[in-house]
Amino acid sequence: MTIDEPHHALLQAAAQTRNRLIVRPAGLNSRAAKLLFARLCKTASAAEVVVCEDEPYWHNDERGRIGLRLPPTSRKRLGLDGDGDGSDASKLVTDAGLGQGGIAPRSGTKRALIVAMLRRDQGATLVELMAATGWLAHSTRAALTGLRKRELPLTKARDADDRTVYRLIDDVTAKAR
Question: Which of 93, 19, 108, 112 is nearest to 50 (CA)?
Fold first, then answer.
């Protein structure tokens, strides 16, 4: 894999930040940004992530704001050791469903979409999950069961309209509630 100087500079700047997010270059048109985004993902120099509102992002899709994070393997491979503490505010799309012994859903899959929807503050209802995936109720419930088997912290509660709402919570979310 060859990384040219401008791309290496982007990766080096990301290695120096706490969240390891790659900032989209100012003045880059949308077509060039798409090509660069795809190239960085294809070469495994960056990982696609769902980011928070206050973090830099490259584009929006059904999961929300999507950014690029410099993974540890790329930092080592490219010789980029930043001073950041490695703590991450956002979750890797590829690691969004990773439990203690589980397998991460591939980016762009329906399981990754479900995980992203469940990680939202408002969570997701069964009907919303069914509409997003095109699955029937029994298949959607089976996917939720699969997440529980992967030891993900899936919660179930009732909202103000007495609908069942499912959420995936992390340690930060659990402490805030």
Answer: 93
Do 124 and 166 meet the contact criterion of CB atoms below 8 Å apart?
yes
Contact 141, 154 (CB under 8 A): no
Residue 67: which H helix or E strand, with range?
strand 64-69
Kindly report whether the global pTM for this prediction surpasses the value 0.90. Answer: no
The side-by-side arrangement of strands in the sheet containing 124-125 is 124-125, 164-168, 154-158
CA-closest candidate to residue 95, choices 164, 48, 45, 38 = 48
* Contact between residue 68 and residue 91 where contact means Cβ atoms under 8 Å apart: no
CB proximity list for 26: less than 8 A, separation 6 or greater: none
37: tokens are: 């985004």
Grouping H, G, I as helix, E, B as strand and the rest as coil, residue 76 is helix
Q: In the prediction, which pLDDT does 170 show? A: 67
